[in-house]
Each structure stands twice: as structure tokens, then as C-alpha cells.
Amino acid sequence: MTRYALPALVAVALLxxxxxxxPFWGLLSDxxxxxxxxLAGALAAAALFxxxxxxxxxxxxxLPLILGMAVALSPVVxxxxxxxxxxxxxHGGSYGNIRIFGSLGFLLSTVAAGSLFDGQRILWLFALYxxxxxxxxxxxxxxxxx
Length: 146
Description:
- The protein has helices at 5-14, 21-32, 35-52, 59-73, 76-91, 95-116, 124-142.
- With 146 residues, it is mainly alpha-helical.
- The radius of gyration is 17 Å and the shape is globular.
């Protein structure tokens, strides 16, 4: 067994557990009308963790950063979807259309980033990811609602 086997097993065990957190965030958000602050805080924290990932000097230093990023990202999609559905309920529109254009944008950006950061520049991908999360953080501050 290599020296990275146990940390890898811990990561494999812990990362899926972050999937249990969205109901907790949703409960806090709904009960105390904190959707916007939780969403903004989660995006800011995830952006910070993404920026720190390339600075990890070892696998053991990388694990808490990846775990922190997973925890920070866990409420983002459910709270963003709730915000979108709330807006659509008030103003009308199609959730399907929003999702299809979001998926298309994700596909195109993934292909572009993959070709741009191919090879030795792969660690710059985390800076781009952090910038995108930071931009989403700023947009979340301007979003309507609680």
C-alpha cells in the first residue's frame, strides 16, 4: 500500500458525504430567509478554495482544500435553482430553457478551457474556475430575493 492510499480512501469516503449537506443549507435558507447570503458565501468560499488548490505542495495538503471546495459548493446548485424557480414563478418563463442554455454554456466553456489549458498550464484552470465562481458571487449579490 502506498503512502497515498489511506488519504485517497478518506477522500473517496468523505466527498460523497458532502451530498448530504444541501438539505441542511436549504433548511437554513428557508427557515431564516438566508438564501442569498448562503449562496453568496458559498460561492466566495468555493472561489477561495479553488484559488488555493494549485498552492498545495502535497497530496495531504490538497485533501482539505478539495473537501472544503466540495462543502462550499454543496448548496450552490439547489439555492441557485430555488432562486431561479422563484423568479420564474413571479415573472413567467421556462425553467427548461434556462437549463438548456446553462448546459450549453457549460459545454462550450469546458471545451474552450480544456483546449486553452492543455498540457503544462493545467493549474491555471483553477484560477479560471475561481474567477468564474467570483463572477457568479458578484451576480448573486445582485440577484433578486432574500
